[in-house]
User: Which sequence fits this backbone?
């Protein structure tokens, strides 16, 4: 299984001229832990994560050292910390050495990257431009859908089914489903999203069953109220 099979295709990004507040707002609104920063040609030049926004002057969380630690810290280190906590530009606070993968990277390699670098998600790049995001949640769902399913080599058919279903749902006004919540394995569509009504849930199942090549629909959905407890 590769990155292309499990990634979230709709990537939330900010431009190189975005403010720190813009990045923080997007992360909060979409419930994500990091957002790639792209230049005017949409090439990834950095990434702003929760860790980059942990010590900020606005919230009174900027890093404070004891006097003896401050004496041994280099002036470069102190200057860098000041920029990270006071600059209003996302470009100034972002992490520049972005760990990324391609669509062909295996999920096993991605899991190792996330673990060894202690990060929660990694952008998928094609020619330096983002085409997806793979998070820890994506990997967990990939694992879950392999349980008790027969092995198959029809990965291309699975991708075609997923693409067709995403296109069908995108055309429907009632459907607000994140691509990350739809996975396909051996012709079985797994739905992980939340739903507001039984009618919406049934419509999602019907849409999945209508796609040619679908053998079965795995219903892992939960009502929205379940997430509010």
Assistant:
């Amino acid at each position: 299984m590769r990155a292309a099979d499990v990634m979230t295709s709709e990537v939330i990004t900010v431009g190189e001229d975005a403010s720190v507040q813009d990045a923080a707002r997007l992360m909060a609104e979409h419930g994500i832990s990091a957002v790639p920063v792209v230049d005017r040609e949409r090439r990834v030049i950095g990434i702003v994560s929760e860790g980059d926004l942990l010590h900020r002057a606005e919230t009174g969380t900027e890093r404070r050292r004891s006097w003896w630690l401050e004496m041994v810290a280099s002036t470069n280190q102190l200057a860098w910390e000041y920029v990270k906590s006071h600059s209003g530009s996302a470009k100034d606070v972002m992490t520049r050495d972005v760990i990324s993968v391609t669509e062909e990277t295996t999920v096993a390699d991605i899991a190792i990257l996330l673990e060894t670098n202690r990060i929660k998600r990694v952008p998928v790049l094609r020619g330096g431009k983002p085409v997806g995001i793979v998070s820890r949640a994506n990997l967990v769902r990939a694992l879950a859908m392999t349980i008790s399913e027969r092995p198959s080599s029809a990965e291309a058919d699975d991708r075609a089914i997923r693409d067709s279903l995403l296109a069908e749902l995108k055309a429907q006004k009632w459907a607000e489903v994140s691509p990350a919540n739809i996975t396909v394995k051996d012709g079985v569509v797994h739905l992980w999203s939340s739903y507001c009504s039984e009618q919406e849930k049934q419509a999602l199942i019907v849409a999945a069953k209508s796609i040619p090549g679908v053998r079965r629909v795995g219903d892992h959905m939960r009502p929205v109220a379940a997430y509010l407890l």
